[in-house]
Amino acid sequence: MTAQDSERRSRHSSARRGRHGGTESAGNFGRGFQALGELAVDGVQVSARATDLVTGRVLFSVDDHVVMPTAGIGTVLLLIEVAARLRDADFGAYTILDRTVADSAGGSGLWQHLQAPSLPVADLAALIGAANDNLATNVLIRAVGLDAVRARTEQLGLGRTALLDLVRDRRGPDDAPQLSVASAKELTWLFTALARGEVVDAEASERVIGWLSLGADLSMVASAFGFDPLAHREKDHGLLLVNKTGTDVGVRSEVGILRGPRAGVTYAVSMSFADTRLSSRLAVLDGMRAVGLDLLEYVH
């Protein structure tokens, strides 16, 4: 056995024990720990955390302090800044913004496929919440400015979470290497604070939660919950979900709030991996689903 293999197996064992503040027995998350540990052995960088929504008790954590690439999850910070500004007379929900050629970005989103050249601010925010809309993201970043988003992030006390750049089809040597980064610990804090109405104020928090509740990407952790991806804003079998995902080459990340008949949880799971084979990607998604199954058992 090589030294690298030995280190990976050590990480595997530690993950199953719920190191870095978590305990497997706290929520009986054995299935999730097993899956994350096996991924770590195979060279996947794993970071995860789940807390009880009411008590704040840590249910499990694996390297939750590590800063990970989180792709589109960073747009939550943009939505917070937009929500905070909607009370301004010159930047209301119905303020019309135009798209430009410079805003263009492929990948996820609907607006690039629509004919409308302009949309209201609130509609752009809804597109981001629902479909991780890259074009809408760039237009809103141009409207409010990355500096303002960064200042708001600092006001919230987030030191390991940031929206770094515009969405780009290609990243050059002078561009930020990632769209966003975050730690699982800070993401769970942020979503818990949103759920409690503590981010900016209750009105702004409610707006952000409303936009995020439209999210149609249930391919990761939330694949275990059984929701209709296109319609899950109401309770279904006693379950209610608000989540945000981030996807890039070699990146899968999700943060969310799951409420059920017995409890509520805030969770964040991020994976960074060599996306050279389809089997590697599918293994990561299977691992995230395993965590989701444990979360489902905890709340339901």
Q: Which architecture name does CATH use?
A: 3-Layer(aba) Sandwich
> What is the level 1 CATH name?
Alpha Beta
CATH superfamily: DD-peptidase/beta-lactamase superfamily
How many strands, what sense, and barrel or not for the largest sheet?
A: 5 strands, antiparallel
Tally of separate helices: 10
What's the domain count? Answer: 1
Rg, rounded, reads 19 Å
* H and E order: HHHEEEHEEHHHEEHHEEEH
Total strand count, please?
A: 10
Give a verbal description of the structure.
With 300 residues, the chain is of the alpha+beta class. The chain has one domain (3-299): DD-peptidase/beta-lactamase superfamily (Beta-lactamase), CATH 3.40.710. The protein is built from ten helices and ten strands. It has a five-stranded antiparallel β-sheet with strand order 2-1-10-9-8, with helices on both faces. It has a three-stranded antiparallel β-sheet with strand order 3-7-6. A two-stranded antiparallel ribbon has the order 4-5. Strand 1 (45-52) and strand 2 form a beta hairpin. Helix 4 packs antiparallel against helix 5, helix 4 (75-85) packs across helix 6 and helix 4 (75-85) packs across helix 9. The termini are far apart. Mean pLDDT is 92; it is low at 1-26.
